[in-house]
Amino acid sequence: MSFQKLDQLGHKLEALEHALAILGADEATHMAVGGGEKRAEAMSTLAGMLHAQATAPEIGDWIAAAEAEPLNDEQQAAVRELRRQFTNLTCLPVEFVERQTTARMRSEQLWRDLRAKNDWAGFLPALEGWWRWCAKRRRCAPTRSASPPMTR
Asked: Which residues of the chain are under the pLDDT cut of 50?
């Protein structure tokens, strides 16, 4: 029963991840000049919502219950991966995820502008700021994989 709850949650989180991916692709390829700040705000809010749902306290209980259920090998592997991801995600507060998303979006937007001007020195402070965000996240979640959170 708990594995089924986790599977249903996975579908919901996957839909939010898909929406973020669409917004990100559109922002990078089609968005009108001047819309970057609002897009960063929207993506930050959505990333925070995704993170809040992926780290809800009851998920830990569902994982623990699913670990005790009679599952096949594939389901057991999925539960182990969910446990790893949940552990890594719960060390990051929603506010951190939102601020990190905003910083990433602003850096990418600045990069597109400064790259065309060949202004590497102008981009360096943003790059250094982004690396600081990455370091903060790595200190919290050392086993974080490249896969998105809670994917199935």
From this structure: 144-152
State which amino acid sits at residue 138. R
Coil vs helix vs strand at 148: coil
For residue 88, give every residue at least 6 positions away whose Cβ sits within 8 Å of its Cβ, in sequence order, or none.
Answer: 140, 141, 143, 144
Residue 128 tokens read as 């250094």
Task: Please check whether residue 27 is in contact with residue 39, taking contact to mean a CB–CB distance below 8 angstroms.
Answer: yes
pTM, full prediction: 0.82
Q: Tell me the two tokens of residue 1.
A: 């029963």
3-state class percentages of the chain: helix first, strand second, coil last, to nearest 5: 80, 0, 20
The closest of 128, 106, 136, 116 to 27, measured between CA atoms, is: 106
Q: Hey, is 152 helix, strand or coil?
A: coil
Task: Map 73-94 to HEC letters.
Answer: HHHHHHHHHHHHHHHHHHCCCH
Residues counted in the chain: 152
pLDDT at residue 142 in the model:
55
Taking the CA atoms of 140, 141, 143 and 146 in sequence, report the sign of the dihedral they define: negative
